Amino acid sequence: MLDARDLAQARADFATTFFGQAVTRLRDVKTKVGGGESVTPADPVVYAGRIIDAKRDRRHMEGEQQVAVNRVQIELPWDADVKSTDRLQVGAAIYSVIGSDTGRAEALCLTVDVSGV
Prior knowledge:
The protein is mainly β. The protein is built from one helix and eight strands. The protein has one domain: Thrombin, subunit H, CATH 2.40.10. It is globular.
């Protein structure tokens, strides 16, 4: 088990070594307006990160049709603020967040599962 100083150094070393892509977090903010809801985009947040896996397919049902979704993993700083309702942009590609490994003990990074939009 690493102490807090060693873990912080390991995280910094990991980011310096592996994170070379800009990953922009896109988030919508919902507010109640009258009897409805208003959706406005929040300010984008840019993290250093990387795509680590773009080869896995995930299949799900849309109505009565099975659809294959290209599933990708993106690594971000361990303390990145990413929710399941966010989208991540890498270059011109935009991905919907499926989930992440938030809360993993002694994580060097946050691994986020996404699918192409």
